[in-house]
Amino acid sequence: MSNYQHFQLQQIAGTLGAEVSGVDLSTQLSDDVIAEIRKALLDHLVLFFRDQNLTPDSQIAFARRFGDLDQHDFVKGLPDHPKVIRVLREADETTMNFGGTWHCDVTHQECPAMGSVLYGVDVPPYGGDTLFANQYIAYETLSAGMQQLLDGLTAVHSARGPFSPTGRAASYWKNMQVTPSEKAYEEVEHPAVRTHPETGRKLLFVNRTFTVRFKDMTERESAPLLQYLFEHASQEQFTCRFRWTKGAVAFWDNRAVLHHALGDYSGHRREMLRVAISGDRPY
Questions:
Q1: Does a structural domain hold residue 189?
Q2: Cβ(159)–Cβ(55) under 8 Å?
Q3: 213 in any annotated domain
Q4: 138 occurs within a structural domain
Q5: Is 122 a catalytic residue?
Q6: Is position 274 annotated as part of the catalytic site?
Q7: Which of 70, 72, 86, 105 is catalytic?
Q8: Total domain count, the chain
Q9: Catalytic, out of 86, 103, 194, 213
Q10: For residues 94 and 75, which has the higher predicted lDDT (pLDDT)?
Q11: How confident is the model over 204-221, as pLDDT tens digits?
């Protein structure tokens, strides 16, 4: 166990992920505690806090210590807290759960989220774990030739797969406030290899949900390389797995990790509240 000045931290996997204890996220934490949490986030990429008791207000207050809050383009927030979205699959739903593919949040935006804070409101008795994958390691384990190729490529991202009128939202996620829109067909460009704005390290920055092709290439031309990268980026040795409990919180660096919510809890309800922290334009 690693000892910090203001809390205890236990790493849970080889490449990323740590559980933090001794912190009550519902309180007004000091600047020193927040600075230490930020350092731990940069070191471990995703932090887990169990046995928290958050309201939407306290979840927002914690997230705002790390930046402004992001507004989701296609998912309506809570009535009194529009920047808090409910991630919900009821017990009688059988479709794929929200977030059920490897992805980085909202890379269809010019400035994707810096991080996300996810709170477990109602968790199933089994299943529904979330997987996270370290994209520093994904880049660093590529061959020098592949790194050189990717360093010169720009990836095109779009939300059409999940959120267009013909996308998954049209038939999935019936109990969430998702509004399919023509806006989802819009495209943005990000470097295929991103430089983290705080650590300066390079990382792979493509994902199954939003990356559709490379700039100046067709989707068919892009598909073989993208498929290879998607599979490479989510290898088991790059990942950690979090078993949710009621009141648990996950806080991840959305700039440097992919995540994937498992849907293996048919017949049970799973409800989370998510707040995203605004980020910078990737470079």
A1: yes
A2: no
A3: yes
A4: yes
A5: no
A6: yes
A7: 105
A8: 1
A9: 103
A10: 75
A11: 999 999 999 999 999 999
Catalytic annotation on 201? Answer: no
**Catalytic status, residue 255:** no
Mean pLDDT of the chain: 96
DSSP codes joined into one string, 203-271: EE---TTTEEEETTS-HHHHHHHHHHHHHHHT-GGGEEEE---TT-EEEEETTTEEEEE----TTS-EE
pTM equals: 0.95
- For 82, the domain range is 2-277
- Active-site residue, from 44, 72, 259, 270: 259
Residues 6 or more apart whose CB falls under 8 angstroms from that of 259 comprise 46, 99, 102, 103, 104, 105, 130, 131, 132, 133, 252
In this structure, is residue 282 part of a structural domain?
no
Token pair for 87: 């991630």
**CATH number of the domain that 270 lies in?**
3.60.130.10
pLDDT at 280: 97
